[in-house]
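Posting this for the archive.
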Amino acid sequence: MSETVYCYDGTFEGFLCCIFDSYLYRETPCGIFPEDEMQPSLFAVRSIPTDRQHAARVLRKIVKCDPGAADLLRRGFLTCLPEKELHLYRVVVKLLREGPAFLHDLSDETLYPVLKAVRHLGSEAHLLKGFTRFSQLGGVLGGEIAPKNRVLPLLRSHFCARYRNESFFLYDRTHKEVLLYSAGRSAIEPLEDFQMAPPDETEAGYRRLWKQFYDTVAIRERENPRCRMTNMPKRYWGTMTEFQGPEYFTPQSSPAAVSAPDAPAGISAPGKLPGSGPSAPV
């Protein structure tokens, strides 16, 4: 049997349809890739259409085997695990073939990469609950993050509950999507091109106050860069107010105003931020 690569639309339902078609055509794909990540291949390529009924059938079967497996699958799909679709596909195949017993074996070679990636996803979402910084932009709160994983679905309930009486947006630079919230309703939408507006006089003043507070409470004699980077990894600094350079605190009315925050250049964050693209969980 010739090896086949599956190509799908990048949605969770589309991935479930890949599993459905694999059983329908009695074939095991050697790769599963979203359309926007598909590279020229020497193998036969099958384009899998998204059918919500097929996706629902697969999900019902997984839930019937083990309800926790469905949640693991959803969270695993949000991770930055390389070739995550193929890893998740193998977990589903093993679940349907052998039953859910292996899901309790943390050393299982099929399950372990997915569990590790999901732990990394949860850890990053937890950190961003504290590391995310919002700005007041014309009556709307706005923030940016640059995570490795697609954490917006996990952050959604936290920030919607925390700012239930506000209107806000949170933009994910890495995955080009935005969480929108207003009047009790929220949505996560794709947003390919985005630039944060410069602050007005009031917002620039608040930013300076926060920066001054951060620098004032620091005890220079007890500065420990390694400890700080352990508890506050450097890859998050690029979107945190306290690590920005002087241009970030320039109000819109000033001729020196810029259209978006730059990489950290302040005294508290020496050096330039490394690339923030997706990578393997650590």
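Strands lie at 4-8, 31-34, 44-47, 134-137, 140-145, 168-172, 177-182, 185-190. The helical segments are 12-24, 52-65, 67-77, 84-98, 112-131, 152-162, 201-217, 225-231.
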